[in-house]
Amino acid sequence: MSKWLKRIYVFGIFIFLYAPILILIIFSFNDSRSRVKWEGFSLHWYSELFRDTELMSALYTTLSVGILSALAATVIGTAAAIGIRNMRRIPRAVVLNVTYIPVLNPDIVTGVALMLLFVVIRLEMGYVTLLLSHITFNIPYVIFSVLPKLRQLDRYLYEAAMDLGARPFQAFRKAVLPEIMPGVVAALLLTFTLSIDDFVISFFTTGSSVQNLATVIYSMARRGINPKINVLSTLLFTTVMSLLLLLNLKDTGSGAVAVEGGARPVSRGNGQDRHG
User: Fold this and answer.
1) Which domains, ranges and CATH numbers included, belong to the chain?
2) Quick one: which of 182, 189, 181 has its CA closest to 240?
3) Which residue has the higher pLDDT, 100 or 155?
4) pTM > 0.70
5) How confident is the model at residue 264 (pLDDT cuts 50, 70, 90)?
6) First to last CA, the chain
């Protein structure tokens, strides 16, 4: 009985989490503007989306900022995580506690603080300020994604590679980076998703000439939900989901190959492989 109750409980949680997304996807194909009444299957709103210059411009801004901020934050955050890992115990604890502050801080506080910073340094609000803001709030998430992989790493792996003749960057690229790559890729995907999802910080740090999807959808929602928003959300959801599935399938395939390779017996005799 308890086993069935656990299954029902888990099933209920998944329904609660994903039923709204499923409804959104279904109504993106609705022939009507209605949000509650189904009036037939149609791709009308998909064609309307690609004719909307405002949404297309916002989509381009969102994707470009998301990609650039994710790449920059991943590079900076990975380097910072390596530096934190090599610190002494007390300085490391202090830096980690300071790094937690942007994660725990309310977004509205971070947004207002960044806006005031850009005003003080007289940096005009626009694409650059939006990009810098997204890089800033993404860096702590990269650090906390990469650090667990660094803790699993042999502390002397880098030095061993150097002893074998590798140059510093070569030792990092061939010895350290492959071991922490799952954490780096996870951080890249996480920061890209956070950048697309962010509204509050973007609202305070972007100008009137540049808008991302979050701010455009907010202004559109005040006049009523347009079915084109359902279409856009569906495309973004399926894109991110496809990336996650591809990465998981790749990791599963790599793990299977590694297990198979590790299980293959090798017999040696007289200095040679008998199977060779």
Assistant:
1) 56-252 (1.10.3720.10)
2) 189
3) 100
4) yes
5) very low
6) 57
